[in-house]
Amino acid sequence: MGSICFYEPSEELQERYDLAAERIREIPGEHCLPERFWLYFTEVSDFVGQVQEIYERQRSGQLERRTEEEGKRDNEAFYGRLAPGTYEKGMLNPAHAVETLGEEVGGMLSFLYSDMLSMIPAAFEGRQDLLTIWSELFLQVYGCFTEELEGADSRWEFTPEQLHNISRNVKDAVYWFYHDYCEIFAAEPVMTMVDPGYDFFTSIVMDSDLSDNRYLYRYGSFIGENELRMADFLRGLPEEKIAAMARTFTEGYRIGFAVTRKDITKKKTVKIEFPIGFERVVREAVKQFADMGLSVVISRESVTSFAGRGNGKRGCYSTSPNRQFDYDHKDDRAYYFDKSFVERRLEVLRDTFEKHREQAAVYGGPAVIEVFGETPFEPVNKPEKKNYSQKQNELNVYHASRSGEITNTYVPGDAYSFTIIAFPLPSIGPDFEEIFARTVEVNTLDYTLYQRMQQKIIDVLDQGTHVHVTGRGDNHTDITVALHPLRDPAKETNFENCVADVNIPVGEVFTSPLLEGTSGVLHVTKVYLGELCYRDLELVFEDGMVTSCTCGNFATEEENRNYVTDNVLYHHKTLPMGEFAIGTNTTAYRMARDFGIADKLPILIAEKTGPHFAVGDTCYSHSEDVPMYNPDGKEVIARENRFSLMRKEDPSKAYFNCHTDITIPYNELKDITVVCEDGRQIPVIRDGKFVVPGTEELNLPLE
């Protein structure tokens, strides 16, 4: 299939683009606003001019002919404004913008500038339509200021009333921009998910000369040391090693369909998500997926507030030039987020899926490469950062629920699968190459060995009605997890014997807890979830529901509670315990200890290095009716809880559209004990060591 363009080029669009570009070039010379505002509009106008210049070079084909040095220079010109030292003193920083431009408009203008950074990748993709509408919005906002010039006093300052009018008009302009162009911003993620014809990224992966790093600058994304060094490192590996890495990834995807008894032959597309720099591996994966009859789709990471910029890396992504920038702006959608906007967005989502119904039906799900090893990040909570109101938090929950329902209608969860694998970044430290090699070993451990030992653990767990977990040392975890009753223990089990398929690497047994009777305190002294650090994270459960949450990151209890509520509970007032698991990958744990990288492991690996508890949906979300069997032939019956049972009567109450794993590392773990109906107590782990007969080998890396 040939390339598809998102828009139809036209004389009208060209004229709009030219008019906007010319008008923006005039702004710096007008100097008609109070100095502080003139400086802002001049800075952003100059930025737009840079974008226009890159776009013209893209249209003429010059970008593909740049040297590596030219590509690097362009990249620094665009993204240097986000470098920590520069960012703090610039208008992209909401704290500086509010200090300079005032509380009335400073935050909004900082948000607008941050969203306009999406013009950079738009120019590299040749998106004249996006460049035009962003330029027109910027001019409209500029007009909100110039319209208030009449009556400004001789000191060239606006009155409070004028600033209030400007603020209202800017907010309206932004609101209607996102409302009116929802058909672009809400539709395109669906289109790029299901249609391989949108091949901007695929063509870079498959057609570029990977023998040097020039190709990295074709994306229009930030390219830093991690991307450059990763590409260099992978370039030096032999072809057979690259093929083996890709094979682990693609086979995990295929096996994911097989173990859940889903027919992969009914699927035609797979979405690869990967970090820039991994093109050699991804190119091989594309070929291997083609051998399975699957075409690859690739889309860009979120680059606007509309798409959720700052809330995790998905798609084709690069490391962040400044994670404080991401955190400062991650809730910018609050500037325009209301019920009408949400309903409009849901309407476009539904209409887009309907137009692409046949393609959505043959979409197989994502195959994801994650990375780890960035310097641990603890955000500064700036008062100038935009936050959602309570009403908006409720809307966020509603929006996530309804969009989840719509997506599941066209891409049923019981018919698709996924796989995830993780590798270290060069920034993990001087032992990067050795850690990378050890990670490859962890990702390819003998799953049959783990399968046998995990079955022995499951045989003990299935004897109980509850599991009691306690911490040691500074960890004060004391929690009891209730298990579903087994009607026929000879044919049924509560725990899935999880090997390396959808979640690579191997190493866990997990269940969906019975909520009633699941109560206690979950505590971890330090944990990284996503890209955020939590110190002394604590969740209290009663009958399976979170009743309180806190951490020790900030000075006030309110800040700590809000931090956990926003980033772990995802704005819900409470969440159920959706999963309880025992990780068995002590080899991964030992690797983390040997290299001192426990605080840098992604949850994908960290969850295998101790027991973990997930808040949110179960692991069987939208797939509860699909029977799941362990290798011993027993059916895993713990696929439900009292919320998912409501999916047929009221789907909006059945799912929470989030799932966050929290792991207790072995060194903070005291005991895991199975409590039986007859009063027996059978230890699985005692003082951090496995004690089930036949699992002794798991303790070797713990010595």
TrEMBL record:
Cited Pfam families: Peptidase_M29
SUPFAM superfamilies hit by this protein: Thermophilic metalloprotease-like (SSF144052)
Keyword Protein transport on entry: no
Gene Ontology terms, MF aspect: aminopeptidase activity; metal ion binding
Keywords, in A-Z order: Aminopeptidase, Hydrolase, Metal-binding, Protease
GO terms of biological process kind: proteolysis
PANTHER family in the record: AMINOPEPTIDASE, AMINOPEPTIDASE AMPS
Protein name: Aminopeptidase
Organism name: Candidatus Pullilachnospira gallistercoris
